[in-house]
């Protein structure tokens, strides 16, 4: 009897908390720590000057293809893809216009792709901080030949292994079932 009396308030407390938890939405704001060109240049894994030639998107990620003129930091191909989030400024994604000459500051993301965002420091040539950003990066050099081609939805190797293992298990179980059915029928 005492247990039932204690259970009712506990259940009511849990049910009262459900609407509160369900109503929580993710924050949608991008706030950058710094906009100092020298500091942003220091944190870039890769920096180059080039012209945005095309863009493709899968709805989550945009791959921007640049024709690279000069490399300032890191290893960059003559035709280089740089990815960004496709949700606009609220998620720190960027929207660049095709044909724009830019200095691009990027980092390697968790999939090994060059990525840039609103807080990375990439700028079009007509931006006020463009010259200061380029000056903070050092002497330019030629890009590597060829093209980088990134997958917009890279399959994680671990996910691929688990999928293959699951397919193997399902296949083996299917063979056992077929064998048993064949033995019963024969």
Could you please describe the fold and organization of this structure?
This protein has 186 residues and is of the alpha+beta class. It has 2 domains: 111 residues, Beta Barrel (OB fold (Dihydrolipoamide Acetyltransferase, E2P)), CATH 2.40.50.120; 32 residues. Helices cover 35% and strands 27% of the residues. It has 4 helices and 7 strands; from the N terminus they run ααββββββαβα. Strands 1, 2, 3, 4, 5, 6 and 7 form a 7-stranded mixed beta sheet that branches. Strand 4 and strand 5 form a beta hairpin. Helix 2 packs across helix 3. The N terminus is likely disordered.
> What fraction, in percent, of the residue positions are helical?
25-40%
Instruction: Provide a count of the helices.
Output: 4
The main β sheet shows up as: 7 strands, mixed
Oligomer status? single chain
> What Rg is obtained from the alpha carbons, in whole angstroms?
26 Å
* Name of the CATH class of the largest domain: Mainly Beta
How far from one another are the termini? Answer: 61 Å
- Total count of domains: 2
